[in-house]
Amino acid sequence: MPLVLLRDFFPALGRWRLWSLLAWLDIRQRYARSALGPFWITLSMGVMVGSLGVVYGTLFGQPMTGYLPLVGTGFVVWGLIAGVLNDSCGAYINNANYIRQSDASLWTYIFQVLCRQLIMFGHNFVIVLVLVAVFGVDHAQALIWFPPGLVLLMLNLTWMAQIFALSSARYRDVPQLVAAVVQILFYITPLMWRPGMLSKHAWLITFNPFAALVDLVRSPLLGQTPATNSWMGGVCCAIVGWLAALWMYSRAADRVAYWV
């Protein structure tokens, strides 16, 4: 497995101009001839945050000054997670022609997905900046935990993307399965509700790795230090996941060109 990193992963990582250009072209093509262009991403996310934040905040009896930042930051982080998981299923299928005709490492197309979603995350992050400007951050020093939390999140999303991309290339039912599971995870991950509201069913948070990953990125933006359990869960998930992804890649990479 270490040979896989030396042979494929690091060379693909070094070709950042290629996969970053492909990611940017994907976004430009999606919003071609549009007046707002990629900022439709921000607009649609802002409308969803505002509408659902007001509705569920009223239903839960939560003060908007604390609830809207909770929902807004949670949705922005979840947009990155869900986007990577769903898009990674087509990473190899959508690039079948390149895979058959080019000697580029398969990791190139994984980095393309990650870069594309990070660009969209950057557009949506405007919403977080607006929420911070309006409601403020009580303990700004907690923001120091945001960069390492985002790095750990991306490390986990990278191995997930590889596993889903390989699985989808082999079995075409996987994208539909992933989409359904992501939809379920949206409701059982503390995005629109606080973890304390689920005291009777706390196991849904304890055994949900995405709750920890969201906490690593969202808590610093809310002026809070991520829980120690979140760091431990994120690191353990990354170690186990990368071992599984590298093992799977070493066995299946040479067959992807035939599957797609």
**Structure annotation, total helices:** 12
Mean pLDDT: 88
- Helix % is over 70%
Specify Rg, calculated over alpha carbons: 19 Å
Taken from the alpha-carbon principal axes, the silhouette is globular
Tell me the number of structural domains: 1
What order do the SSEs take from the amino end to the carboxyl end, as H and E?
HHHHHHHHHHHH
What class do helices, strands and sheet pairing give?
A: mainly alpha
Number of strands: 0
Quickly describe the structure.
With 260 residues, this protein is an all-alpha fold. It has one domain (2-259).
Structure description:
By secondary structure, this protein is an all-alpha fold. It has one domain (2-259). 75% of the residues lie in helices and 0% in strands. It has helices at residues 2-14, 16-30, 39-60, 64-88, 96-101, 107-135, 146-170, 174-188, 203-206, 209-221, 228-252, 256-259. It starts with a helix and ends with a helix.
Protein traits:
transmembrane, ABC2_TM, membrane, sugar transport, 260 residues
Architecture blueprint of SSEs:
Blueprint (H helix, E strand, L loop, with lengths): L1 H13 L1 H15 L8 H22 L3 H25 L7 H6 L5 H29 L10 H25 L3 H15 L14 H4 L2 H13 L6 H25 L3 H4 L1
Helix pairs in contact: 2-6, 3-4, 3-6, 4-6, 4-7, 4-8, 4-10, 6-7, 7-10, 7-11, 10-11
